[in-house]
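Thanks for the sequence, V.! I ran Ribosomal protein right away. Repeating your input here for the record:
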Amino acid sequence: TTARVFAAQKPKPKAKAAKAVQTNPEDALPLDEAIRVLRALEIASPHSAFNMEVATKHNKPNAPPLRGRISLPHDPRRVADTIVVFAEADSPAANAAREAGAHIVGGQDLFPKILGGEIVPTKCLATAGMMPLVSASLARFLGPKGLMPNMKRGTVGEGVELGRLVEEAGGSIEWKANKLGTVKAPVGRMTFAAADITQNVRLFMDHIRDQSVKLSNSESALARVNKAGKLTRVRIETTQGPSIEIKDMI
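Predicted structure:
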């Protein structure tokens, strides 16, 4: 007789539990109460972050994605930036960048160090004169990481202007809405006082509204808001905790 052998099936790995998301608008909480609830749930995770999730709706056809950069009064990032500036040696731009707080300033000598991992930038800026060299040598490396200097993103400048851009980049958070119009960004850490988180949240929400208005070129402020879009839902969550809808933010 022929023995029939059955391979033992390995148990399927358990799927990760989906993060609890509150969907009933009637259960929405005021911001200060939501912060208290999330803090209580994350008491065993002192390094958790508070994050905002803002849903936007834009009526303008083919509108560019909602995006921006903001420096919050209480920096919610766990790791500080490493700002690298590509500038001609001893140029006014290089000096301005150093005075503004850039961590590393240099020219082509920085390229192999970045490609080899000796320097790991989190933000890159450059002078217009350095851009051809930066593009030729680093575009394929920095581009996929979202670090390539770009005039439209405010990371290319000259002289004193470059120094100002470095100051803006230091401590700032860049954000961009996804294809569904949802914006996500950190606004605090568990170690922050509730008042500091509240201040960050309100400033961030004001900033999103301002950026939404700028998507339209209408002269009327009201028309700009109507054309650019509106905020449809605001939630706050922590790293391991649930997502709570805020009722006093729209």
